[in-house]
Protein: dCMP deaminase family protein
Organism: Ohessyouella blattaphilus
Amino acid sequence: MSGKRKDYISWDEYFMGVALLSGMRSKDPNTQVGCCIVDQDNKILSMGYNGLPKGCDDDEFPWIREGENPLETKYVYTVHSELNAILNYKGGSLEGSKIYVSLFPCNECAKAIIQSGIKEVIYGDDKYHETHGVIASKRMFDAAGVRYHPYHWTDREVKFKI
Ligand SMILES: O=c1[nH]c(=O)n([C@H]2C[C@H](O)[C@@H](COP(=O)(O)O)O2)cc1CO
Ligand SMILES: [Zn+2]
């Protein structure tokens, strides 16, 4: 009987919570993606969200999905959350780490995840599971031995003033 609190958040809730909070920085009006990379000792190594590269003004570049001119859509400019987290990490190697991400990684992020040595993907949503990108991601993860599984959502709601 140590008397410790019982309702503290689990490691999984903590890391997915950090991923979701990171995603709240996104300027994308349709899909906000956030992620959190964690080492084997449960230390957070990096975080990211989908956004524009440095120097590209959020108010100057387009955020729309479709248009006659592909150069006026967001797709050619945004850096995905996972790539941002990998590129932002300045501490050395990500070998053996895991990534919590709110959306299943696309094929380009999957390549970066594999090459950086991340070994496990815990994803919140898989809404693009029918796309070629996600099908290719899973094929590459399977071949490369990167494990992936859905996050188990809990009933916990987090509400606080910031
Ligand atoms: O792996 C990913 N990581 C990531 O950050 N994104 C971002 C890119 C876009 O800003 C947004 C997807 O936009 P939309 O759902 O409107 O197509 O999510 C998208 C994916 C894969 O779909
Ligand atoms: Zn991606």
About this structure: Residues 28, 30-31, 33, 50, 65, 74, 78, 80-82, 103, 105-106, 109, 128 surround 5HU (ligand 1) (CB under 6 Å).
